[in-house]
Amino acid sequence: xxxxxxxxxxxxxxxxxxxxxxxxxxxxxxxxxxxxxxxxxxxxxxxxxxxxxxxxxxxxxxxxxxxxxxxxxxxxxxxxxxxxxxxxxxxxxxxxxxxxxxxxxxxxxxxxxxxxxxxxxxxxxxxxxxxxxxxxxxxxxxxxxxxxxxxxxxxxxxxxxxxxxxxxxxxxxxxxxxxxxxxxxxxxxxxxxxxxxxxxxxxxxxxxxxxxxxxxxxxxxxxxxxxxxxxxxxxxxxxxxxxxxxxxxxxxxxxxxxxxxxxxxxxxxxxxxxxxxxxxxxxxxxxxxxxxxxxxxxxxxxxxxxxxxxxxxxxxxxxxxxxxxxxxxxxxxxxxxxxxxxxxxxxxxxxxxxxxxxxxxxxxxxxxxxxxxxxxxxxxxxxxxxxxxxxxxxxxxxxxxxxxxxxxxxxxxxxxxxxxxxxxxxxxxxxxxxxxxxxxxxxxxxxxxxxxxxxxxxx
Length: 459
Description:
The protein is of the alpha+beta class. The protein folds into 2 domains: 5-101 and 159-304, CBS-domain (Roll), CATH 3.10.580; 309-458, CBS-domain (Roll), CATH 3.10.580. It has 21 helices and 12 strands. Helix 9 crosses helix 15 (335-345) and helix 12 packs across helix 20 (437-446). The longest helix has 14 residues, at 131-144. This is Protein kinase AMP-activated non-catalytic subunit gamma 2.
């Protein structure tokens, strides 16, 4: 039986890091709290809950331009398709306490609310805050009537609410938590990022990610003999004040009623990898959207939609990916040097290339968190090969592709492998380029590859 959080005293440390497990109310628009589990890595005890259930406003439903409305009445079908033959996404792990495993789902419903015509929204004179929206609408209109815009229209017709799993785990940190404990909590819960809650403002103020861990190590590491005081003693709020004092930006988030097109546009425009879904009424964080989750959702329904011609074209013809000045490292590269490259080049993964130029491994930002798991972050002079021996998960090898493979094959491979990028290689297995999830989403949704190619041919 879950105890009410206010029925027993709670040490201050227990309130600083929580793992929330939500069960989604299909069709009802509510987001009841199913359980609250404290982070075991912090020595926290006992389950808890919230005094009231947060809720979202009833979502506005738009007429779909695809014959997919049936899944709205069949949430089980959608969930089964999303989770079939795959592990949970980065920040949306399925976690259901035994007390909820046998409980029935709320009956589904289809709210019927009138959606204001888009022309009305565009009638008003745009202000500075609306400039980005107009730019986005221009992108939509260019491909709206073409075959290449089929995925764009699909994403516009679905809400962020549609992609949130029935049960999901969300790790939230208070900014007064020590940095080291926060990263240990990320490791213990198998997530890559967590929203940051500032009690003084009573709102979410940012995200703590593995990039922050890398930046701390990069900035303060001296030698194996010198302890990184800033990592051991600083609180999250202290780190944010020191590191973000010149580059501070407000938290980028999105409403559950916003379209998935808006989500993709926000992710790519702001050059971020995680987008918190926050209820604008209650201020509660509901889920964290990622490129991987969005592409998986789109790929599940690709077979139900007309296939654009560009899906049968190869990467070389479409020009998708990065092929110039690719950052890479060698097996004997020290970890501290790899971290420097992460920071200086602003990349999320580094192919590991041997003396012959062949790609033999890949070192990603996610691998860096293993330094926290193994508590070896005080010695960054070890080589990449030594560090990769401590991978927490079985590594099946570098997922590669060729520039001559078609986009349809690329999408299927990156979704099935559940990776964030493919290494493009030639016949000798030497690195040619990198194609990332954001590259693919950009080509499929924001600037459909087919439309871009027609422009080139016209010129």
